[in-house]
Amino acid sequence: MAQYGLYRHMFLVFSMISPLVLSFTVITSDSTAPSALIDGPQTGFTMTNDGAHTEPDEQDAVYDIMRATGNDWAAAIPDVCRGRWHGIECMPDQDNVYHVVSLSFGALSDDTAFPTCDPERSYVSESLTRLKHLKALFFYRCLGRAPQRIPPFLGRLGSSLQTLVLRENGLFGPIPDELGNLTNLRVLDLHHNNLNGSIPLSFNRFSGLRSLDLSANRLSGSVPGFFLPDLNVLDLNHNLLTGPVPSTLSACASLIKVDLSRNRVTGTIPDSINRLNQLVLLDLSYNRLSGPFPSSLQGLHSLQALVLKGNTEFSVAIPENSLKGLNNLMVLVLSNMNLQGSIPGSLTRLTSLRVLHLEGNNLTGPIPIEFRGVKYLSELRLNDNRLTGPVPFERDTVWRMRRKLRLYNNAGLCVNRGNDLDDVFGSSSGSSVRLCEGETQRPGPSGTVQHLSKGDGVTDETTDVSSGSKSLGFFRLSAFLLVLSFGYMLNSC
After folding, report:
1. Rounded to whole angstroms, what are the CA distances from 157 to 130, 136, 152, 178, 296?
2. What are the start and end residues of every segment in region (Disordered) (predicted)?
3. Fewest CB within 10 angstroms: 160, 309, 419, 475, which?
4. Predicted confidence (pLDDT) per residue in 286-309, tens digit
C-alpha cells in the first residue's frame, strides 16, 4: 500500500473535480527525515509472513483511537497493519516490526474510503501519543456534532509528525501553544472550524513548514511576523485578523500563495513584498487596506493573480506604470476599491493578462485607445464607473468576449458608427451603451445581437475571483494556481 503516493496525487485530482476541495491540502512526506524505519513499499507483509507483526503497544493504541471515532470493528482485526484498511499506513523497522506512520479519517469522496466517524460521539483519543512513529494525522468532518477543542496533547506527538490536518471538524476555542512543539511539521491545516484567539507565536518553531491553512475560522489579533523560509502556502482568509500586512512576510521567501482576504487588515501593502519573487497568487481582497499602489509590486515577476477587490479605502488613482514588469500576470482584480482617475493605457502592455476587473469604482475619462486591438483579454469588466467617450474596441474583440465584456452603468460611454459596433451596442442589446452624439442607428432590428442571447444556448459564464470562488470562464483559477503551487511543493520534497 502506498498511501503517501495517494496523498501526493489526491489534491491534484480533487481540486479539479469537486468544489468541496478547491483549496484542499496535499499531504506530503519528507523522505530525508531521519528515521529508523525502512521507507519503502510494504512488500512481503502478508498473513503468511509470520516474521512480521505490528508493535503491540501501537496495536492497542490504534484500537483505542478507532473506538474513539466509533470504529469498533477495528478491535476484531488481529494485526492492524496486516488489516491494511484505507486510512492506515505502516512501515517496518530493521527487525521487521511494523509501526503506524499514518492515520486518516473522513469521507473525502466515494472513491476514498477512509474510516468515517460517528458524528454523535467521536473524539480525538490521547492514545495517539503512543504512536511514536506517526508522520501524518488526518481528520476531515469527523467531530462536527460533538464540538471540542484541539487537544493540547497533540503537541506530544513529537518530532516525527509532518502532517496535521483537522479540517472542517467544528473545533472551537484557541489554538493551543503546544502545537509549536511539532517542530518537524510540514503541513498544518485547520481550515473551516470555529477557532478563535490569536495565531500562536510558537508557530515560528515550524522551521520546515510548507503549508499553513487557518482559513475560515474566527481568529483575531494581528497577522504574525512569520520567519518560515520553506513556507509555500499561507492561507488565513475568512478570519477577524487586524493590523497591517507584516513587512516580515518577506522572510518567507518561498511563498507561492498568500491569501489574507476577508479579514480586517489595515494600512498599506509593504514595500518589502517585492522580495517574494516566487509568489504566484496574492489575494488581499475585502480588507481595509489603503493606497498608494506600492511600486514594489513591480518586483513580483512570478505573480499570476493579484486580487485587491473590496478594499474601499484605497481611494487613489492607478499610477500609469504601477504594474510594469508583471509579465506573467493573468488575473488582475481591482473592483470596488473607490479608485479615482483614468484607466492607465499601460495595462495593455501586460501581455499575459486574461482577466481584468475594474468595475464598481469612480474611474473617469475614456477607455484608452490602447484597448482597441487587445487580442489576449478574455474578460473585461468596466461597468459601474463614470467612463466617457467612444468605445474603442474592434468588432471581433467584442464578439469574442461576449457577455464577459461589461460596460453598463457608464452613462458617458458611446459607440461610433465608424467602429462598426452600433449593431452590437444598441439600446436594446442590454449594454446600456448609446450611439455617440450626432450618430444615427443603422436600419434593421435595432441593437439586437443574437449571439449574446441565452436563448442560443450560450452559457453566461462569469468570473468571481475572490476567496470564496476563484474561477475563470476558460478554466478554474484556483485549480490552476494550486496545482501549480503544490506541484512545486511535491517536486521540492
Report:
1. 8, 10, 10, 10, 42
2. 434-468
3. 475
4. 999 999 988 889 989 999 999 999
Q: pLDDT, tens digit, for every residue of 329-355?
A: 999 999 999 999 999 999 999 999 999
> For residue 277, what pLDDT band results from cuts at 50, 70 and 90?
very high
Q: Give residues with Cβ within 8 angstroms of 95, minimum separation 6.
A: none
Strand order across the beta sheet in which 364-365 lies: 364-365, 386-390, 412-415, 434-435
Report the C-alpha gap between 459 and 462 in whole angstroms: 9
Cell, residue 141: 468532518
How many other C-beta atoms lie within 10 A of the C-beta of residue 261? 27
DSSP string, 118-131: -TTT----GGGGG-
Residue 355 has, within 13 A of its CA and on its CB side, a CA count of: 24
Tally of CB atoms within 10 A around 223 = 22
Is-contact 329 353, C-beta < 8 A?
yes
Per the rule left: phi > 0, alpha: psi between -120 and 50, beta: everything else, 95 is alpha
For 137, the enclosing helix (H) or strand (E) is: strand 136-140
465 — pLDDT class (breaks 50, 70, 90)? very low
Q: Are 406 and 429 in contact, with CB atoms under 8 Å apart?
A: no
Give the DSSP H/E element, type plus range, for residue 189. strand 187-189
CA distance 69 to 249: 39
Q: Does the pLDDT at position 75 exceed 80?
A: yes
Distance CA 274, CA 482 (A): 21
Q: How confident is the model at residue 436 (pLDDT cuts 50, 70, 90)?
A: confident
Q: 91 - beta bridge partners?
A: 99
pTM of structure: 0.82
CA separation for the pair 1, 7 (Å, rounded)? 12
Q: With H, G, I as helix, E, B as strand and everything else as coil, classify residue 112.
A: strand
Q: Are 237 and 259 in contact (CB under 8 A)?
A: yes
Measured distance CA(112)–CA(3) in Å, rounded: 11
Distance CA 241, CA 214 (A): 11
Which residues, other chains included, contact 319 with Cβ-Cβ below 8 Å and sequence gap of 6+? 292, 293, 295, 344
In 301-431, where do the E strands start and end? 305-307, 331-333, 355-357, 364-365, 379-381, 386-390, 405-406, 412-415
Beta partners for 317? Answer: 340
Angstrom distance (rounded) from CA 107 to CA 406: 41
- Give just the sign of the alpha carbon dihedral 393, 394, 400, 403: positive
- Find out whether 52 and 37 touch, Cβ atoms under 8 Å: no
Predicted pLDDT of residue 82: 84
